[in-house]
Design brief:
By secondary structure, the protein is an alpha/beta fold. The chain folds into 2 domains: 101 residues, 60s Ribosomal Protein L30, Chain: A; 153 residues, Alpha/beta knot (3-Layer(aba) Sandwich), CATH 3.40.1280.10. The chain contains 11 helices and 12 strands. The strands form 2 sheets. It has a 7-stranded parallel β-sheet with strand order 8-7-6-11-9-12-10. Strands 1-4-3-5-2 form a 5-stranded mixed β-sheet, sandwiched between helices. It is elongated. The model has no long low-confidence stretch (mean pLDDT 91).
């Protein structure tokens, strides 16, 4: 494959910068930039298309990086001057290898769900770290799919991917932009899973998660960090769930990512999850 050496901030380097910083151009190129051993390994393991690798000129690479360069077929690779590699990296110590990865069409579900799925819907997430942690929690507890609705932070933002710790590449996700798409999608789920239970999440004093039967197929509806669950989701929920907190606590609610982690755990606890 072709290898381009880069010593200045030429057009190729400027493209790398916009893949990191510019949402609109990132989607126009249909590519995003990733660094970190765990993320790159999981992207390859989960069959994401690697378009290019980026690595420093004249530096002895680890066996891991050298093996990937030999083994993974790419369109073109780039060798960067060390100062450019350091400037491009989002880490204090620049990664020895970065990857430009092709985006997937995430406007519709691409996989068959399990016989008794747990599905999560996150409405208009506005915090990159929260969304990345949501990916991680879903992956950790075997959630089948994450649905992201409305105008949210970009799932392909480097901060989202970094905070997911590799789970971004493993967990199936779908973006739905409006209530009509969401209602159609939920209707299809109900046709496949007649016993589907839709659980709205709230910090208000509603039914405790311990009182809700989570053995049937479940769709968790998770509200925006600032506004909570909007009225439409409240209306389509079969039950509203809350996490009981100590009466002596000064905290009025959990961070959204912490809250759903507790709820996912309760769902798999009730189902007899054994690890």
């Amino acid at each position: 494959m072709a290898v381009q050496k880069i010593f200045t901030k030429n057009a190729a380097y400027q493209k790398f910068e916009v893949l990191i910083a510019n949402r609109n151009k990132r989607h126009r190129y249909n590519e995003f930039l990733v660094e970190g051993v765990r993320n790159i390994n999981e992207a390859i393991k989960s069959n994401w298309q690697i378009n290019s690798f980026i690595y420093p000129i004249g530096k002895n690479l680890s066996d891991w990086a050298s093996d990937l360069l030999r083994r993974i077929q790419t369109k073109e690779n780039y060798e960067l001057a060390e100062n450019l590699m350091n400037e491009l990296s989002g880490k204090e110590d620049a990664s020895e290898l970065m990857a430009i990865i092709n985006m997937k069409d995430n406007t519709k579900s691409k996989r068959e769900l399990s016989e008794n799925p747990i599905i999560a819907l996150f409405d208009r997430p506005s915090n990159k770290g929260n969304l990345g942690t949501m990916f991680r929690s879903c992956d950790a507890f075997g959630v089948d799919e994450l649905i992201i609705t409305g105008h949210s932070v970009d799932v392909y933002d480097p901060d989202v991917i970094s905070s997911s710790m590799g789970s971004f590449f493993k967990l199936p996700f779908v973006n739905l932009s409006n209530n009509n798409e969401i209602d159609d999608y939920i209707g299809k789920l109900k046709s496949i899973y007649p016993l589907l239970k839709i659980i709205g999440t709230t910090s208000h004093n509603e039914k405790s998660i311990y009182e809700i039967d989570m053995n049937p197929p479940i769709l968790f509806l998770i509200g925006n960090e600032t506004d909570g669950l909007n009225q439409h989701y409240c209306e389509i929920s079969d039950v509203s769930a809350t996490i009981p907190m100590s009466e002596q606590s000064s905290a009025s609610s959990f961070n959204v990512s912490c809250a759903v982690t507790v709820m996912f755990y309760e769902a798999i606890r009730q189902r007899g999850f054994a690890g």
